[in-house]
Amino acid sequence: QVALVESGGGSVQPGGSLRLSCVASGRAFTSYAMGWFRQAPGKERELVGAISWSGDKSTYADFAKGRFTVSRDNAKNTVYLQMNSLKPEDTAVYYCAATSSGVWRRIGEYDYWGQGTQVTVSS
Question: What are 87-110's pLDDT values in tens digits?
Answer without folding.
Answer: 999 999 999 999 999 888 899 999
